[in-house]
Amino acid sequence: METKKIIDLRSDTVTQPTAAMRAAMSTAVVGDDVYGDDPTVNRLEALAAEMLETESSLFVCSGTQSNLLALFSHCERGDEYIVGQEAHTYKYEGGGAAVLGSIQPQPLDFEPDGCLDLNKVAQTIKQDDFHFARTRLLCLENTQGGKVLPLDYLAAASAFAKEKQLSLHLDGARAFNAAVKLGVPITEISHHFDSISICLSKGLGAPIGSILSGTKILIQKARRWRKVLGGGMRQAGIIAAAGIIALENQINRLVDDHENAKLLAEKLGEMDEFYIAPGSVQTNMVFAKLLKNDPTPLGKHLLEHGILTRCASTVRFVTHQDVTSQDIQKTVDIIKQYYAS
Ligand SMILES: *Cc1c(COP(=O)(O)O)cnc(C)c1O
Fold this sequence. Notes:
About 45% of the residues lie in helices and about 15% in strands. The chain is built from 14 helices and 13 strands. A 7-stranded mixed β-sheet has the order 2-8-7-6-5-3-4, sandwiched between helices.
């Protein structure tokens, strides 16, 4: 019996490793990475540093760990970082900076375009006074909810951080989506930051892993903290091999994901049942607000037809390499069928 294809639009983390990744993993030359002996991990870290034009990179198990290591490496106990209210590094990482690092978050609302207003950030920086935590770091996110931060904003944020003597970290889980959307090399983004975290396991399709990149000194600190957190991996070249393929082969195809998201947004946008904020669909994410009805039966209907989404009052659809334009058309058809019945 033919098994029906599941169209999984919940996230771009659900991608299956490509055939090339599986082949590379099966033949990867490995060693003990805690001793620095894994040639494949070393090659991935060197490749990432070269692509991002940073001094050094570190291969870590997840984006959450990567951001946490960045926070630990920029900040000390009693320091503070300024971050978006809805940012992954604040809201979706279990409060790790505070829980494990005694680093205080200072969240601020994102602007509708995914930026943090630098005037508001300036007002939030605390004076040098022992009543206050020491404001040390500004964290941005790109893409933010699928939105691409403009390059001139990144330049302004970088100049601002220098002026205010703050470090600047980018949660660039999907930074390659941003670069591809802008049609610029990733360095046009990475150059503005003291550190950048990139997920290999989202749109780039690797099974596991993220990269933290920055100065040698910062990455040395992060390497130490990675060990402290139990993140020192041994023959990690097995998974790093897939990460190399992700960086070498998987970036340009992100265009297809963006096209598919646009297609889905256009089709849903024509329907009375959905509201999609104008200009919000820039990369591989569609947030469609339900205007008329309860998400639960819609989610159930989609599930019954093999379509997985994050179906709440706003439905989130994320496109990736395992979703084709036919899958998008089918998703639209099934949604239309639901409203027609
Ligand atoms: C997914 C994601 C992360 C964390 O990655 P994990 O590998 O899931 O820990 C960090 N930031 C953003 C913006 C993300 O989307």
